[in-house]
Amino acid sequence: MSIAELFVLAVGLSMDAFAVSICKGLSLKKISFQHMAAAGVWFGGFQALMPAIGYFLGSFFADMVTKCAHWIAFVLLLFIGGNMIKESFGKEEELDGNMTVKVMLLLAVATSIDALAVGVSFAFLKVNIVLAVMFIGIVTFVCSAVGVKIGSIFGSKYKAKAELAGGIILILIGMKILLDGLGIL
């Protein structure tokens, strides 16, 4: 996986965290650098942790399914992207400005479950996991911190568009992996 592909994947994965960060920014009366950094650390940290966990879980099975790895990666990314697109058309979620450890932990886990599945696909694709995890974490940190600021300025009108874009990006990456695996690209 090239750096450009990894960047696009990281942006796609960060869209859930970005959307939640926008809502956090909207719900906070007055934001500070600490709010932005907290969102970045929580969401970026979990977006980095989950693919690492998925990678190590997937590594146990990678040798058994190498012949169909591109199909597995495609199905996982199609499923994740499809869910993100579906959520983008769903009901607006109500979020408050609460940034306690309990709330942020739950949100961080909820927004990074898709990254766990991506990590499993990384094992099948023999991706440099250290580079991928660092890249995903940093991109999500920046997107989340910026999302809090954007939310405080513009509100939640871009949340659905961010989720839609993230879902489309993940599906396109899945299609590229499939076409590469089939020898078409």
Summarize the structure.
By secondary structure, this protein is mainly alpha-helical. The chain contains six helices and no strands.
Radius of gyration in whole Å, from Cα? 16 Å
Question: What can be said about the biggest beta sheet?
Answer: none
Helices and strands, in order, run as: HHHHHH
N→C terminal distance: 13 Å
Mean pLDDT: 82
Number of domains: 1
Bin the strand percentage: under 5%
- The computed structural class is mainly alpha
Dominant shape: globular
The number of helical elements comes to: 6
Measured as a percent range, the helix fraction is over 70%
Poorly predicted runs: none
Number of strands: 0
What does it look like?
The protein is mainly alpha-helical and 185 residues long. The protein has one domain. It has six helices and no strands. The model has no long low-confidence stretch (mean pLDDT 82).
Q: Which helices and strands occur, and which strands form pairs?
A:
Blueprint: H1 3-27, H2 33-62, H3 69-88, H4 101-125, H5 129-154, H6 159-181
Helix pairs in contact: 1-2, 1-4, 1-5, 1-6, 2-4, 2-5, 3-4, 3-6
Descriptive keywords:
185 residues, mainly alpha, globular
